Amino acid sequence: MDLVRRLRQFVVVAEEMHFGRAAEMLGIAQPPLSQSIQRLERELGVELFDRSRRQINLTTAGQLLLAEAPALLAAEERIRVLMRKARNGEIGTLRAGVPPETPAVTLQALLHGLAARAPGLDVDLQELTTAEQVRMLAEARLDVGLVHHPVPAEALRTGPVVEVRLGVVLPRASPLAQLREVAPADLAGHDLAIFPRATAPGWYDEILDVCRRQGFLPRRIRHAGNPEFLLGLVLARQCAAFEPESTARREPRVAWRPLVEPVLVRRTSAVWPDRSAHPAAPAFARVAADILAGPVLSTPSAPPPEQPRPWSVVYPPDDFPDRSG
Asked: Taking the model in full, what pTM does it have?
């Protein structure tokens, strides 16, 4: 910006009251400096220096400009800093989507991680299904989303993918809960509790395809939109669900058992538009991946064995097999 550059040069000349010394301090020759000050005077329509004597002096206009210059230059620097932060995604608002089943501790860690990287960034976190996020990203109503794959990849960038092995969630009273591992075929005769297909169509179809290939044809499919309702279906009916172990920790009356083979792996990552991407989207993706791939965050679990267990009024103590097998 020529005006700002010339204004900075003017301040140096006004402070030194000598074009030669000012040119030396600025690291330029004296003739270009004199020409630059003359252009500034023509642009402002005033004379800034009285050159009628051997020693230059500031005119009234020059004195007024010198008084205003520090504030003008400081404002220009602030604009540059703000624009750099905006370019780097450190300020502004980031509209981010997360799955409805995301635990509170994960949300807290995600927001704290983003705040540590960009304290001035306002994160508008929205509870949205994978399908809703993909649609809103396409409509430019969302900047970044945390989705379960597979999703349509057209016009989307994908952050680091985190894989989580799924197991079977069963009532603790179920005979299958006595096993160390469960094969999908062992679930014959059970209903399957699963999220509605509209939530994440690609992931829903993949789960049912794996069930068919592994010999499990659910007697009935029951849909649950949130983890609490899903766990309720598992407890209230002859129902099984494929979930991460962390989901089972929310309810002490259910057991989680790994599958005989890791045939079901949930893949999660951040996605954002390929064009006109929000500068903070890649940072969101990295923070989310670090949290999801890190140590399992604490969730409500059963009290230590030496303490009374409140659910023993529902199931006698002998009905709780050791989790290790």
From this structure: 0.70
